[in-house]
Amino acid sequence: MMVRRLPRAPAPPARPAAASRSVVTAVPLAHVAVGPRGARPPLVLLHGLFGSRGNLRGVARALARGAERQVLTPDARNHGASPHSPVMTYEAMSLDVQHLLSQLGIAKCILLGHSMGGKAAMALALRRPDLVERLISVDISPVSTAPVSEFSAYISAMKSVKIPDGLSHSAARQLADDQLRPVVQLPQLRQFLLTNLVEVEGRYVWRVNLEAISHHLADIMSFPIFHEPYPGPALFLGGSNSPYISSKDYPEIQRLFPKADVQYIEGAGHIVHQDKFEEFIAAVLNFLPPP
Q: Catalytic residue at 169?
């Protein structure tokens, strides 16, 4: 594993905070808890775009055992079993997690987020540092990321899928896979998107809110402007084969997270916890306070 310790140089001049475009209301997040509630702050794991809490089930179990603390895995708004909303910004997503913590009586947590979930975790840590004891951002930086056009193509392909009623789930999934293939050429990515294909009252639908995601793609791919840094410990844990945490991001990471370390897991791509599961768990446990 490669470790980059960022220099503690003075931060650049603060930029003005972005003005809120509208009043944002939290939605109640569907979630699962692994392990009993204890005295130590729980871990909260936030999944990425087009994912769900099920993507982090194995991670949650391993971390609950290794860290000896409760682990919560919520579904983001417009994903999994959580409610749909026309708003899909990091302000909204971070407010949802804040609402969940309040609902569960959690005064402080350790946040771990992957990709979109990492940006939501960073946004909450920057808005409400009093709620976040430590932060782990998995393969994502507080900067703009992938081109919107790439994900727009995936959404268009998903919207165009046509599945007749009455098919078995395996047949429906195979038919959807065939229809996605011309646009989504990587089999692993197609299988990931297909986890969102569900049967509702005899019809196959996408459980993710494609309209809201499509409308807010620019928000999801960018990151809000903050001027006050998060004062707690932070770990940016990337895959060595992924471009999502690069050296050009270090100044902004340092400005917003002055106590951050950057680490790379050798041989891992963007889905670090899937590509190198054991190394990922070890890196996270090493960053957490000892049980």
A: no
DSSP string of 24-60?
A: ----PPPEEEES---SSPPEEEE--TT--GGGGHHHH
Catalytic residue among 84, 99, 199, 211: 211
- What does the alpha-carbon distance between residue 188 and residue 197 come to, in Å, rounded to a whole number? 15
Q: Which of 80, 105, 81, 109 lies closest to 94 in space, CA to CA?
A: 109
Residue among 150, 162, 244, 237 nearest 189 (CA): 150
- Is 115 known to be catalytic? yes
CATH annotation of 2-145+222-287: 3.40.50.1820
Of 94, 115, 141, 242, the active-site residue reads 115
Q: Contact, 263 vs 283, CB < 8 A?
A: yes
Mean pLDDT, rounded, for 147-169: 92
Is 91 annotated in the active site?
A: no
pTM for the whole structure? 0.92
pLDDT at 146: 72
3-state secondary structure of 230: coil
71 beta partners? 34, 43
Q: Is residue 87's pLDDT more than 70? A: yes
Sorted by where each begins, the domain ranges of the chain are 2-145+222-287, 148-215
